[in-house]
Structure formats: C-alpha cells, structure tokens
Design goal:
The structure is a homodimer. With about 325 residues, chain A is an alpha+beta fold. Chain A folds into two domains: about 5-145, PurM-like, N-terminal domain (60s Ribosomal Protein L30, Chain: A); about 160-305, Phosphoribosyl-aminoimidazole Synthetase, Chain A, domain 2 (Alpha-Beta Complex). Chain A is about 25% helix and about 30% strand. The first copy, chain A, has helices at about 5-15, 60-80, 100-115, 190-200, 210-225, 240-245; strands at about 25, 35-40, 40-50, 80-95, 120-125, 135-145, 160-165, 200-205, 225-230, 255-260, 265-270, 275-280, 290-295, 300-305, 310. Chains A and B meet through helix 1, strand 2, strand 3, strand 4 and helix 3 of A and helix 1, strand 2, strand 3, strand 4 and helix 3 of B.
Chain lengths: ~325, ~325
C-alpha cells in the first residue's frame, strides 16, 4: 500500500534532519520561531502560509486573507515573547485573478504589517499557469523585547509549573469559513506584559493554533513533562464546551507555563485580556505514559492529540 | 473590458505603497533584498518562490526544485554583496504527493542551504484540499560581508560607470523545462571577490533573473541613468546569440556597474568566473529617452524590456 503523505510527518522530517545548522542557530525548526545569535545579537525568524481552501474559503475578503497571513506570524512572535521587526511575503495567484482583488490582498498584508510594527519590506508574486488556489506565505523577523529578556521557548516548562492560557477557547473557525480565525488579535501586548511582570518566572510559551490538546502535547514533548489539564477550568467561548476548547484550532491564544510560586496577573495588556490557570506540568511517570491528561470530575484520563479521552493504562 | 492582472503591476504596487516603513528600513521593496538597520547592525532579507508549471515542469527531480528555491535566493544575496545567515521555507503540496517525493524536496532545500551557509531553520507545510500545484517559497536572511562593506544596491550606478557581467548569457531555460536554471551556481564567491578587489568602486549590482534587457532597464531606472549595451561584446552561452543573451531569463549572473577608472579583474573567485564589460551608463538625455540603448554595428537603437530593438526618436 502506498505511504500516505501527512503534513506532520514532513514537519517532523524537517525538524529531525536539521543537523549541522551552525553555532549561530540557537533554536532550529520546531518552536514557534527559530532563534539566531548573530555575534551577540539575537534575531528570530519564522514563516507561515495561508492557502485558499485550507486556511480560508474562496470568496473571503482579500484584506482579511492578507491580515490573517500576517497575524498568524505576529502570534508566533508573541509566543516567543519577542517584538516584530519586518516581514516579507510571497504569493501565487490564479491566472484569472482580478487585479483589484490582488491589490486588496497586498493592502491587507501591508496595513496589518504596519499596525504591528513589522513593515512589509519585500515580496515575490507569481501567477499559476493553469488552475491553482491563491497562496500567500509571510516570513516574520523579530527581536527580543529587550536584551535582558531572551526568547521564551516551548521547551522551558518544568515539573510543577502551572499552566495558563489567555482569553477563551473554541469556535474560532465556523463551518462556513467565517469566524474569529480571520480577525483575531495576536497577543503581542499580552506577551510583553507577561515578560515584564514575570521575568524568568515565565518558563515556556507557545500560541494555540492547532487546538489545545495538540499544542499542549507539543509543549509537553518539548519540555519533557506530562501536562494535566483541568477540563472544568477551561475558559470557553460562547457556544463552546470543553470539547471544542481542547479540539478546535485557530484560537491564537497564548499557552504558558510559570513557576508554581509565581502569581500571574488576572488580566494582561491594554485590552485587559484575562488569564486562566488550566492545569499543571509534572514529571513523566514512565516513558510510555500519555503526554496529556485530562482531569474530568476528579478522574484522570489520557487525552489524545484530537482532544478525545481514553482510559489511561497508567496515567500516573 | 476587465483589467488583466500582471505580476509586474503587483510588484510595482507593493513598491509604490511601501510608506512609513520605519527608520530601521534602509532599503524597502524593489532591490534584490531589503536592508534593515537594527541599532547599528545591518540585516538583509528577501523571499523568492518556485511554482510548478511556472518555474519548473511537473516531474522535475524534487531535489533540484528544492535546490533552485534556495539558489535563487542565494543569487539575491550575491547581488547585494552580502553573506547568507539562514533561511526558512514554506511549501504547499498536492494532496496525492508521494511522501518520498516531499522528503526529497526538503532534502534539496536543506542540503543546498547548508552548502551556502544558510541553514534551514524553520518551515511551514500545507496540503491542497483540491487540485493545486507544488509551491515552495524560501526566505533568506543575510548580513554584510564585513562592517566596512555595506550592501551594494542596484540604485548606486552613476553616469560614466562601466557595466559588466559575470559568466555568459542565454539559453538557461530550455523548452522542455531542463537547462542551467535548475543547477546554476549562484555567484556568491564572485561577489565577495568583487567587493574585496573594488571596494567602493563597485557602485551597483543585481542578479540577472528576467533577462538582461529587463534587468538592465530596472538598474537604469533605479540609478537614474541611461544604459548603453554593446551588443557585440555580450558573452553568449553555446547555441545563443545576442538576442538570447538580452532576452532569455534565469541566467543568475551578476550585472554590475563600476567607476570608469576601476580595473575589474578578468576572473573572479575560486571558479575563476570570467567578467566581461558590456556597456556603460550615461545621463538620461531627457526624461522620455529610452532607458536602455543597444549599440549594434555602430548604430544606437532603443531596446525594449523584451530585448527588441526600436528606432529611437531621441537615443541621445
């Protein structure tokens, strides 16, 4: 039977074959952004794309498409507790695209980029020869917020850390293609507030793009811990329950781990975005133990990457 | 009649709407790479993509596709007389792509990136929901070769400068999709040799990606000069005449302008790549004069961006 292609496998291949990158690469593929040390100066870089039919439906307002391509990247910058510097964009357009549509796509990128102090400084455009969907990739450059605050990685979590999220979860992407995933506010200001108030007490952070269950699994693997999520504590968006909160993607909230002794502000930044403690980290009881445990009515159950519960053979 | 979309128009729109980019953006859209000044440190960044059916034909060896996506960017780094630091890549793949094919694509990117000291430090992958071509964009980060050698822009040319190219031109892209465009060697080493030997005498530089006529036109506009090309002096690849040399794209040789008093080495770098003087720059005689003039049998004729000659109303 032919092997089936899966996105995650290819990302894992990129990560696992990332060898001999050079001494200036402090963090390679696998975190929200890569971290480079250029003779004492830290730079961060990462890329994210949006594809018609995958990340947005045909007919979506092009300015919102351009906006989303930028804000997905800004969310990655927030997740590293960094500050955007500039961005570049590459797009491939259908041959029959309306020039006005294409310009509005650029407007969406350009204006959003300026809004977050990440000016669009370069681009490449192409036209499909035959049929093909609109594709837009944006690469973001960022710097640490200040020399005393290095980037916050997803791998810095420790046993006994408390796990928190910003905002509330679930329901970002509606079946008709609309929803918060197009116009969310990346948590840049909130991340800066966290760094300012917690300093080195902020151990690990990432943004929630693929659903809490999946992303918590990634943070647990990167930090070599087991994560326990108190399902009843999850902050849910209107119309959502805990199942949507753990399994829906595209929330673009921050998931972060802090030292147990740390007091996390109840609200963050100019928007006074709320924070909620949703769980904790603990040592992996054994190498085969589940990475993520859901605590439901005082019972611990293994949670898979799609947010489904399973009877854990050995949850502890 | 509906307006027809053209790539160049959209790139011009990106360039022309690039306002309020911030004081740290020294060169925005429009050169081979953007130039940023981050508190005294210069960083360069740019993006280039390859799309199936546009930049390579279906069935092309995926390692060569990955290689080309990187080398196009390395060529831009050479054109700025800079040095690569790192790259990131985004690809979108057909739903039915063979996983082995996808991994070889990544291998092509990764190995080429390491070869040119631009390690692949991050990536994003996606799968088309319906039909769609393979698309791969690579963003390159670079630094100046040394603090005393700032990036060389395409806008630095001056009247009376002599115009040179590396290597020879034409025939890179054969009708069947094969040819030098897949396995060319970007002129990184040659650019470094030029900077070392000419210093500030090297006024302007760019790489030849869209054909000499088109690219010389861009350099002439950026440098506010008229360019005269001595057609008989053009170094042509086997099987090519001057017409192919001015109109074929994807040569990825360097086009550079030097002060008239400067002696350009006959060969450059470890490969001993030849250089050829092909023309000069002079003041625009009037604002409506042609940007590029071809000198053919002692007659000056206006050359359009496709390399075709026209009777000039006022060539001088």
């Amino acid at each position: 039977m032919p092997e089936v292609f899966r996105e995650d496998d290819l990302l894992a291949y990129i990560r696992d074959t990332a060898r001999a990158l050079g001494p200036h690469v402090k963090t390679g593929p696998g975190d929200d952004l890569a971290v480079l040390d250029l003779q004492g100066r830290t730079m961060l870089v990462g890329v994210d794309q949006v594809v018609e039919g995958v990340h947005f439906v045909k007919g979506t307002d092009p300015e919102l498409v351009g906006r989303k391509a930028v804000t997905r990247n800004i969310s990655d910058v927030a997740a590293m507790a960094a500050r955007p510097v500039a961005c570049v964009a590459a797009c491939t357009l259908p041959a029959d695209v309306d020039p006005g549509y294409a310009r509005r796509l650029v407007d969406g990128v350009r204006r959003t980029a300026i809004q977050f102090n990440a000016p669009l400084v370069g681009g490449d455009t192409g036209i499909h020869r035959g049929h093909g969907p609109l594709m837009l990739s944006v690469t973001i450059l960022a710097e640490p917020i200040s020399p005393v605050h290095p980037p916050v990685l997803r791998s810095g979590g420790k046993a006994d850390d408390r796990l928190h999220v910003t905002g509330s979860l679930g329901g970002s992407l509606r079946p008709d293609g609309s929803g918060h995933h197009l116009d969310f506010e990346p948590r840049l200001d909130e991340a800066e507030a966290l760094v300012s108030s917690l300093g080195a007490g902020l151990h690990a952070m990432m943004d929630l793009s693929d659903g809490l269950a999946q992303d918590a699994w990634r943070m647990a693997v990167a930090s070599h811990v087991q994560i326990v999520i108190d399902v009843a504590a999850l902050p849910c968006n209107a119309g959502c329950g805990w199942h949507e909160a753990v399994s829906d993607g595209e929330d673009y909230e921050l998931l972060f781990a802090v030292a147990a002794s740390t007091t996390v502000p109840k609200t963050l930044g100019r928007q006074r975005t709320k924070t909620t403690q949703i769980g904790l980290m603990r040592p992996m009881p054994n190498p085969d133990a589940p990475r993520v445990i859901g605590l439901l009515d005082d019972v611990e159950l293994a949670m898979d990457r799609f947010g489904r519960f399973h009877e854990a053979r050995s949850a502890r």
